[in-house]
Amino acid sequence: MVKLRLKRCGRKQRAVYRIVAIDVRSRREGKDLRKVGFYDPIKNQTYLNVPVILYFLEKGAQPTGTVQNLLKKAEVFKELPSNQMKFN
User: Which branch of life, at top level (predicted)?
Assistant: First the structure.
């Protein structure tokens, strides 16, 4: 199963995160399938590759709680068909 989750980057006390599609069994810093976005909590900036995110969501990828909140804020779920919005 594939999840959309955050992968920590940056230095100490200056964390930035990549939003990646990754296998559930991989660790946080493990090999990802594809980088689909970027999140900087300090500057509150978000970059999302929406077509790729929609592709993974349509194939059954589950976003983690934080990623789901970021996607809701960016209104990505409005672009999905209503029958595809079944998440944990």
Answer: Eukaryota
pLDDT score, position 28: 72
By DSSP bridging, strand 62-63 and strand 45-48 are unpaired
Residue whose entry in the numeric block shows the structure tokens 């976003």: 63
Evaluate if pTM is beyond 0.85: no
Q: Is the dihedral of CA 46, 40, 32, 62 positive or negative?
A: negative
- Which H or E run contains 54? helix 50-58
Domains of the chain listed by start with CATH number: 2-79 (3.30.1320.10)
Is the distance from CB of 21 to CB of 2 less than 8 angstroms? yes
The conformation of residue 25, written as its DSSP 8-state character, comes to T
Cα 88 to Cα 85: distance, rounded to the nearest angstrom: 10
